Amino acid sequence: MNTGTLAAMAWRNIWRNRRRTLVTLASIVFGTFLAVFLTGMGDATYGKMIDTAAKMGNGHVTVQHRLQTEAPAPKRFVSGAKGLAAQVVQTPGVRGAAARIMATAMVAAGGESRGAALIGIDVGSESKESLAALGGVAEGALFAADDKHGALLGADLARHLGVELGSKVVFTLTDRNGEIVTALLRVRGLLQTGSPDADSGLVIAPLQTLQKALGYGPEDATLVAVLVEDQRQTASVARALQPLQSGDRVVRTWHETMPELSGFIDMKLSGAAFMQGLVLLLVAAGIFNALLVSVMERMREFGILSAIGWGRGLLFGLVMLESLWIGLCGLLATVLVAAWPYWKLSTEGFTLPVVDSSQQTQVANVMMDPTFYVRIHPENLALIVVAVLTATLLSGLLPAWIAGRVNPTTAIKLV
Question: What stretches of 155-259 adopt beta strand conformation (E)?
Answer without folding.
Answer: 168-174, 180-191, 202-206, 223-228, 249-253
